[in-house]
Amino acid sequence: TSEMLQKICIRNLVRKYCQGVSAERKVQLQQKVVASAVFRGKKEGYLQSINQPFMDTRLKENDINPKVLQLIHGEKIKYVTPVIKYDRNGFKARDRLLVLTQSSAYVVEMAKVKQKIDYATLKGISTSNLSDGIVVIHVPEDNKQKGDVILQCEHIFETITKLCMLANKQNLVKVVQGSLQFRIGSGKEGTMVFTAGQEPQVFKAKNGQLTVV
């Protein structure tokens, strides 16, 4: 009888807790569960991120240029964050915004949409096992896409979790070690090398590879 009562008591406590969880708290817990499945034991810095709540967005809708809002009219904006985009040729760093809607990801420059990625066509999301904030969004080889997107995000765990959940492609997130391949366009591929060092850096090495320290 005692064992049965203990089980009933525990079930009752769990029920009360679940009923008392707010909608905002439930969303937060769902995101953290996905982040755990993707990053736990795989990427440096994950443990330190656990107690940091994910923000709904890093920028408000009114922080986006009105011309861009017109271009993505009809799609509900779910998340916006500043990013650094690295060109596929030459790897020059450029300030951009990553705008995630219900159906697509947009890389935005001021009043221009530089690239649109429909979640349905997204082929994968890659990041390294080190503490850098690099994420590569892999896109299909077609005339609509210029090539894979190389971004650096300050809130890497939050950004990737939001992206893979909106795209419903958690299983396509890869945490790689050493290096990864990305598509430049026109059938060409590039290599990104990850290494540990004294200071964080992202630069084009003499061999032409993008090196992330």
Automatic annotation (TrEMBL):
Top-level division of the source organism's lineage: Eukaryota
InterPro entries: Myosin_TH1 (IPR010926)
GO molecular function, one term: cytoskeletal motor activity
Gene Ontology annotations for the cellular component aspect, listed alphabetically: myosin complex
Record PROSITE patterns: TH1
Domain TH1: 43-213
Protein name: Unconventional myosin-Ih
Organism phylogeny: Eukaryota, Metazoa, Chordata, Craniata, Vertebrata
